């Protein structure tokens, strides 16, 4: 439908101001072409294929290998100076990885040696496939707790240790497959449903639960509840007061104080970061020597005991792919896989920002997935890039992922020659190490910040925290994700609509509630729709627009001012619209017609114009009442108000042609 030339005579010119800025209907594109463009924008926003353009077949193969195996990119330029930095960083994180690995394996109710196995193979895989230079790979507390909680509900680690171990390997395998699949299919946006507020609350709650669980070791208790909620743990602790061991309490509190003191010193003096990094290993050494010299294991202090020497044995044949436990492993693998992905990618991006380089989230998913798949086949359980270890790696001056290789080499030497030295390591020291690490995850400052900035995000955070602490890890995660998704749906179903006014002495129109100086235009109401229009919000927008008109008419009548004649809808941010949205605009048009008003559209996007045209709603509204900007729409309405009979309707647009 052709657009008429509207001429608005005004005082600025003798002959008038001609408005030639029209809103055209975009040319039609074939469906497959449009579908391809939308698909590319959704799954390939970074356009990873641009590097393959204008390249031959062999060159494309080389570039493809470089894309999926990042080590091929930086290895040719690797220098001895880089290696010196990576070697120091690798040895430093190894001193943290060894005691933490043993501690987290115990947290997952797995043999302690698995913590060392998991710090050997996965870091080697990540060094080849990962795109982060600073991420230090290893086991972490929250997934360890999730495995213990979810698998432990169905299979007892003490009564069926072999089955429990095999399920842990199977969980790791499914988590790896899920992670790699997300990366290959470029579905990483699924992880974005774990918002920052969700992660803060969930991690804080999980850290609290982990600390409560470690009271078993700190108090020297033999029997403890398998439940993770606060009530059950407190009940288990205070019904066994007669079994508390003062030796364990003194030893545990002493080492916990030592660990917290070293962390405090490292924060006050960042150049002494290595003090807190070495503190867990120092604690293990001192605790082992103390137990050995005093024979404390004979006085109620529990020790690790025998650790088998040697490298990771294969575990491919132990994976369980048959009922009744396969679905349990699959469910646990997906949940833990998402958690470690969210943590690992967030940590990697944080340190990449500090060093001003970019990491590809989808490639990171593939790297995490592959290292967990290979790990599950070599007696490892779930790994990711923990913040504490990565922070030590960063502060130690690492240059590339070779620091992970150095760490793996140090763990390999430990597995081959040094495991007997951990025989006398007291479990209470491991509990102190875990508590010391977990206290750093309870980020109360972030929760306070959320309260000041966004109350809804604070509710998400608190819901996740108390869901984990009072219910279970799974309940907390479900509550947090449910609240986050509900918030997204609420934003979609109830988009914000606001009234615009003119900033004095300008042609700018802004929200009246934000800019008190903004003035209403007599006889015109300007409404801004702040979201795409879909079936989920079409009814709400129709009712809300009608309410805006009612309120404006009532206000004008009460003030005795000019009656309302025009309703301008600013569609500048309406990026897309469906058939329900088109029907809503058609109904709004009919509703304002019955009121004797004129509907005017300002700045509709290309998709809106195409669908208005194809549905013939454009013809009903009249393309002469669709303008490029709000200013143009207001100018046209003012012209009609001052030169034509009020409420004349769309036929008055012909005046513009006559004047032309």
TrEMBL record:
Keywords: Membrane, Transmembrane, Transmembrane helix, Transport. Pfam families: STAS (PF01740), Sulfate_transp (PF00916). One of its GO terms (cellular component) is membrane. Its main location: membrane. It is found in: Membrane. Residues 514-637 form the STAS domain. It comes from the Eukaryota. The chain crosses the membrane at residues 135-152, 164-187, 193-212, 244-265, 272-293, 325-346, 366-388, 400-418, 425-442, 462-490. It is a multi-pass membrane protein. The keyword Ribosomal protein does not apply. GO terms for molecular function: secondary active sulfate transmembrane transporter activity. The keyword Membrane applies. InterPro entries: S04_transporter_CS, SLC26A/SulP_dom, SLC26A/SulP_fam, STAS_dom, STAS_dom_sf. This is Sulfate transporter 3.1. It comes from Cocos nucifera.
